Amino acid sequence: MLSPTAPSLFGILIYPGVEPIDLGGTAGVLSMATRLLPNVRYTTIAHHAGPIRLSGGLIVQAEHAFANAPPCDVVIVCGGPGWPDAAADLALLRYLGDLQPTGIASVCTGALILAAAGVLDGRTATTRRHAAGQETEAPLHRLAANRDIRPIEAAVVDNGVVTSGGVSLAIDATLFLLGRLYGEAAAAEIAELIEYDRAYAANRAALGHTRIGA
Hints:
Elements: E1 8-13, H1 20-33, E2 40-46, E3 50-53, E4 59-62, E5 64-65, E6 74-77, H2 83-87, H3 90-97, E7 104-106, H4 110-117, E8 124-125, H5 139-144, E9 150-151, E10 156-159, E11 161-164, H6 169-182, H7 184-193, H8 197-206, E12 209-211
Parallel strand pairs: 1-2, 1-6, 2-5, 6-7, 7-11, 8-9, 10-12
Antiparallel strand pairs: 3-4, 10-11
């Protein structure tokens, strides 16, 4: 476990069509975490550095391309309706495949990108439970179609690779990852700071944090 002043770097992997709440639920929590953990840093990573149009039209800046991304303590893959194209991006899949599994996480349908990269093979994982918009199948059911993956309903699953449920559960996943590095007391304090402590406890009670092999 790191001390509160120890440095860490989170990479947030984005691509065209990421759902903005996935970026907000990760980067926003990490930004607030620096009030208590002053040396937490984060950066955005994409196929190419530069502007990325998210779902709904919001444009954000990717600071690094896969080719020059810095070593990160953990890389969080965001979800969103652009995930099928991202899951077919061979450079993205190679980038994930070159990372250590314990340094990879996903939020929402980012798990389907991890599945395409093969990093969930042999693991238990989760993703968004319900279909949305034009989807004909729930992402969790899509994950179940891969016989090498054991899908479960959960807020967060830690089976080396960390996956989380959908949408606002990106907040839960980021708190969990901070707790994995800095201790659960630090994660609880950050949850209280962002006025998410009650929701964090309720989601954990309703859906659970599943740790496997940890």
